[in-house]
Amino acid sequence: ANSIPWGGLAPPPGSAPAFRAGGSGSPSGLVAAPRHSRLASRRQAHGAGGAAASVARALDAGGSRPELWGGRRRRVVSGAGRPGGVKRGGERSGAADKVSRCVGRRRPGPGAPAAVTEEEHCTVERRADLSYAEFVQRYAFSRPVILQGLTDNSRFRDLCTRQRLLASFGDSVVRLSTANTYSYQKDTLYFFGDNNFTEWASLFRHYSPPPFSLLGTTPAYSFGIAGAGSGVPFHWHGPGFSEVIYGRKRWFLYPPEKTPEFHPNKTTLAWLQDTYPALTPSARPLECTIQAGEVLYFPDRWWHATLNLDTSVFISTFLG
Fold this sequence. Notes:
By secondary structure, the chain is α+β, with helices and mostly antiparallel strands. Helix content is about 20%, strand content about 20%. The protein has helices at about 35-45, 55-60, 95-105, 130-140, 155-160, 160-170, 195-205, 270-275; strands at about 50-55, 105, 115, 125, 145, 175, 190, 220-225, 240-245, 250-255, 285-290, 295-300, 305-310, 310-320. The two termini are about 25 Å apart. It comes from Ovis aries (Sheep). This is WD repeat domain 24.
């Protein structure tokens, strides 16, 4: 595991920027951002500790449709010892069962004929017709937004099925992160950030990042695969985009001036179960479940935490 460089490898001239966690940049940049102190801090924010595993082991999710990552709602990974403590054969147990209970609470909506589930409750705008000028004016420096239909990543999605990832990268060694700055004694290990650009270039070159950029930034990308119940506790860094390729990812966001109430040594799932229900309406975060094909933009220094509701494949574009 220690032989895998955190920052990835610099791309050859004329190629896309290096895919690496914790870097900075915009989708329009021509060169990868140099490594500096911010990389180290973001590495901690997203989990510096972890364990080595082959991609085949990391993707050993079972299920009735192994060629895909989708399936019925609130589907969880199966297999003894997998993230979330889920048993083989699709039985729910441990953290994955808590995901279903925590996000399955019902809240009546105004004017709705029936109650909607928590996971469908969204307080972040969705935009399918957003221009770059409006993005900069209304969202880039002030609030999150969910972008729809800006890019076509159907080819990249096809290459990210479980079957194809195993065929192409099943013998590759990756680092499974705890996604927690303060404690590594968690069972929510997942693959996020340690992407060797050369080894994964055949996949990454098919990804089309969001077309919006910020002046003076260059991009750094990070690819991830996670089991239900895993996620990143509250933290902040520079602005960026996060796209879900398969599965669903729940986001919780607070503006920079509003520090969330959370224990730094607990997972997002524990926060959702123990702290979230007691929050007053004014103390609750902006929140939404990002579906496959959607992209969330988060501005600079916004607090955010994530929770993967399904086995999820995703990719982030960090700007800095």
